[in-house]
Each structure stands twice: as structure tokens, then as C-alpha cells.
Task: structure prediction
Amino acid sequence: MSQHLCEIGYLSRSDGSSLYCIGGTVVLASVNGPGDVKASNRHYNRTQLDVCYSPSTGQSMIGERALESVISKTIEQAIIVHLHPRTAINVTLQEMQSDGLALSTSINAACLALLDAGVQMKSTFSAVTCCIASSGAIILEPTEAEIKESSAVVTFVFDGLEYNVLSAYQDGSLDSDTFNLCLIKCQLAAKDITAIFRKTIEDKHKFDKS
Amino acid sequence: MDSDITESLYIVLPGDQVLRFNPEENRDRIFIGPGLRWQDNVVRATKPGMLKKNGKNLYFVDTHQKRYIPQKREFVIGIVLKKKGDNYVIDIGGSEYATISYLSFENASKKTRKEMKPGDLIYGQLLVANKDMEPELVCIDVYNRAVGMGTLPGDGIMFTIPLHIARMVVDPQNPFLLMMGKQINYTVVVGFNGRVWIKARTQREKVAIMNAFTMLELMPLEEAVDSIPMFFSGFSVHLREDM
Amino acid sequence: MTSMEIWKIFEPDNYYKSFLEQNKRPDGRGLVDTRPITIKVGTVNTAEGSATVRIGHTAVMCGVKAELAKPALRKPNEGFIVPNVELYPCCSPKFKAGPPGEKAMEASQFIKNVIISSKMLNLEELCIKSNKLAWCLYCDVVCLNYDGNLLDAALVSFMAALQNVKLPEVTYDEETERIHVGLDRSIPVILKAKPVSTTFTLWSEEIQLIDPTAEDEDQGSGEVTVVLLEDGKMCTINKSGGQLITHETLDLFVRHGKEQIKKINDCIERALIEQMDAS
Result:
């Protein structure tokens, strides 16, 4: 596994924020809400979730919008949306440095920022990316160069309870046995990420009397 | 066990199992407070934070968050935005604006109505706060007394602090505000929505008090309280000179 | 109005649930039955290749328009393929006019992913003259009637239309820089893989519905799309959010997906032969 580094409360004005870094990919996430929502997006029974992702270079194109859609559908399943009707939760993700792991880093950053903001969730979630090298070996959390050489890239998002699959996103073809092998490897890595989340939150509450 | 004592158990993340509770099997009742939910006979956390329990079997999660979610009976500081019919629209930092009727003030009547300008600050209590309704404030208790509520004078200053700090300093057991009172003369109003209004004699004193509040975010309470005398040492000299 | 219709309006969840308890869906299908699929190719005369696909009430049309373009500087030996999915308000009241919505973008991106992941096209074959001239295939998928399972329908129509493409012969004279386009369209696009997608709607941990209708999608909590190649290899899996699924469920999806491969590809094959016979 690459090195994971994170920091919460990075931005002072937003309700929750985090900086998450896996290897050479760094994403800054900011969460605002539950807050005001414009009338067209207002739902009588649930929170509207808006996710905005911007890449480190260039403009947000169709690829980034697709990424946004994957991220927002993942988050929507994790947060309890019916607790605050007629409100919106804004998740803004800014990639600061890019090394191929934009999706998994963004999702992990979003999870930490939501934890920092105290948004009510069913469980935490963590994302892991792996790729199949041309030799057939599975590389966890590859670099951009390794992804370019690989035959397939798979990203899984697991929940923090039973580590079941919340989202899966695959590029390139692979047979189902390899896929299952990837899933198991990523599942193990996801447990480590949840441990990182726990440590970060414990750190935030270090002044609480226990 | 003394029911007033709240014990801190451990840190939870959303989804963590707190305890199993089946109302048909378990005789003793438990209460679940904010940050917890009961589903399939399991109580799970929904917010990250310190799990706490008091003597009456009330479990809750103490979260550190900045966004205020209105709760009934809580005292908050609001900003008057505009007048709307018989009501004022007040920003209390939640997702929706709150309203207050011009009659919800002490000694207010149709003839002696309370006049407020946009930008005025008011300290009130939430009468209505639930997810499906607009929050409503009042500045009187059930006996029509103000008990400290009402508009705040214009010569103070308001700033925001995280919600858990606000909850912490209003605790009567908490020595923080009293300790500061020993050093300088000041007036303080703390709203549960994380807004603090202070009044002191000079601008410098106000800034010093604001900084003292920020101290709470960065160090444990004991350390913050201990450093207050040093923090205000410059001011106490002035106090004596004035006298 | 019949009592059933009233029930459906007032208690849509219970109405729907009562069907699932009997292992049926409101349209009479079982949980793992797909809807009938009809494919017609060559439906748009002005396009280089086209196909119309119906899956139950979902109707999707794909047209491939070929244009000559200059290759990109970075990849001078490659042509282009540009998939685009449009969801106009005429296919369902769910969609609004204006710039493409989230669902349309997701579908476009999905097809793009499939093209890249399956390596179905060698883009170098679309190049006529390195650094000078190449084909650019615009594949526009338009939904005519939306009743769920857009991704499957879009991919089938896209694959059928692509196999229907006939390009004219083009010669490029390097000295005079003149382009000569032949009159008859005869050159097909060679496909290296024929991916087939299968979509499931997740309703609960135990119940998943294959080939969902719009109603199934509304009632369910999310879709999983599994794309497989002819040999059963996994090409793309698309699960964004939705109910949690276990390892075993994923395996089950792949097994169902494998059954679909031959069925769909045969269907496209038959449609192509039919069209050839007719012309």
C-alpha cells in the first residue's frame, strides 16, 4: 500500500474539511451543510447532495462529471438523507496533485470531511484502487505510470461495517477470478483506511475527557 | 449511581455498534440521544465523537461540529434579517431562517411593539424546532418574563466558535468563564448555535476574550483555564491603574 | 380507475413489494427474466451506420456519422470515435431540455469506458494517412422512449450501428494534397471484441432484478452494470452507490451476464443478415 496521509479541519470557514493523500495524489475536500438549498433542488423528504469535483489541471469535462456522479451516488448511500429534509449538503473536492488515484482519494477525502462536519451517516466508507500489471500481478494503489502500463484498473468502495461493496468502478478487461482476487485484496486495504479514519477522529477528540 | 454524572466511554465512528438492545428481552430502559440510532435491535452511532452516558442510562455522542441544527428549548443568538408581517426573520445559523413574533418579548403588546432593525442581534430560545417546520424563537419564558433574553445592546461584539466549545463553556461546572471574570470585567452571552457575544470596556479586552475562546479549541480545558491569568496579566494592571 | 391503480398511486411501495413477494414484477416477468429485444439496423439512410433497438418499451436509436478529420498531434496514427448519448424530454418527463443531464453524461462515459476497456477498435485502422487524414466516427445515441435499462439498450444499439457502418474508400494524394472519396460505401469497421452489458437493479440484499424497467429503477436503490466480452472476461463493472452487495451477488451477476452474451450477439448478427438480404 502507498502511504496515506490526512488532515482534518484544514479549512477554517467550511463546516468540515479534509486533506487526503495517497501516494502522489492529494485531494482537498470541503463539506458544507445541511444548509440552504435553492427551490428547484429542494426535496420534501430528504437532503439534496451536491458534489463538485475539479481536477488539478484543466477544466472539468465529461470525464470529471462522470467521476462526480460516481462519488455522489456513493456518498448518497452512506449519509442518512431523510434526517434533514429541504436542505442541501455540498461536497467540494479539489484535486491538488494528481497521480492516477483521483477517484479513491476523492472518496476517502469526502468521507473524512463528512466525519469532520458531523453529518449523520449509516457507516463510514473507504475506497481502494488496484490495477493489474501486464505481468498479471495485482498492484494496490498504483501510480499513474503503473496505471498506464496496466491492463485493468478497478476501484472499490467498501462500507465500514461488514466491508461490503458500496461501489465498484472498472476500466479495462479482466477475468472474474482476478476480479475476485482484487476484491479481497482491496477489502483488506479498506480495513487499514478505516483505521486511519478512526485514528484521525480520535486525534480530533483528544481534549475530550475520557 | 449519581444521575448527574456523565461518563465518557470511548470514541465512535458512524456505523459502530454501541450496544444491543431488544425491548422485548431487556427489562431496563435506555434512552438514546443525538448521534445514535436504533435499528434491528442494535444501537449504532451515526456521528463521530465521544460516546457518553449519564446515570439515567442516556447514551449520546458528543460531536465536534460547526453547523448548527436547531433543537427545541435551546438558547441561541440570532441576527435580525428583515421584518415580515408580524414576524421578524432571524438567521440562527441553521439551514432555514427562524421567525419571531413581535409579541414574543417581555412587556410587548400591540401598542408597545418591539422594533428591531436588520442587523440587530437577539438572544432567544427556540420554541419550535423540528425537521419539518420553520424554527420559531421567543424571548420570554412561560411566565412572560425575559430572564435575560431579548435584543443585545449595540456596543458588544459577536463571533462564532465550534458548537462543542459553546456547550462546554455554558456548563455551570465549567470554570472558564468565571476564571476570566476574575481577571477583567466583561459581559458574555453564549448561544448554543456557536455564537458568542461579548462586551468589555475596551476593544483590546474584547479581542483578548475572543482569543481566550480560540484557546479552547487548541488545548485541553484545564490548560486553558490555567493560562487565563497569564493571558490577561497585562489587563489586570490597567484595571488597578484605573482604580 | 381500478382498485389496483388506486393502490399503486397511494401505496407505490407496498404495491410493488407485493409483486416481489410472489417473485414477479408488475409487468408479469420473473425476477431474472429479460424483456424481449428487437434490433433493426440501417434505420437511418443518411448515416454511415445506424441501428434501432427496443428492449421492452425502451427504444434507443444510434447513428454513426463518419467525417474526415486531421489526426491529433499527439496520436498522428489514430482516428477518433466519439460516443454521445442524448436524453431528450420527449422520451420521458424525467429529463429536461438543455445541456446533457447527469444520466446522459453517465451513459456517454459508460460507452466510452467500454470502448477503451474492451479494446474493440484499433483506432489506427481509422487512420488514412498519418498526420494528415483520419476518420472520425460520431456515434450519437438518442433515446426515443425511456423505460429503464438505458445503458444496455445504448450499448446494444451502439454495437449494432458500428457493425453496420460502411465507409467509402478514401485516397489521399500527398503531392497535390487532394482527397478523393469513392462513390460506393463498402469498407466495414473491424471490431475486435463484442462486449455485452447486463444491468441489474438492487432492491434488497436478497432481491436483484435483471433488465429493470423505469418503475423497477425508481423502486430499487441503484443499478449494477456488468459488461462482459464474448469469452466471458469482465470488461467493465459499473456500480455507483446503491445497496451494498456481497461478493457472491457479484458472482451471480457475472453468471447471468454470461447467459446474455450469446443471446444479444446472435440477435445483432441476425439483424445484420436481415438488412443485407433486404438491400
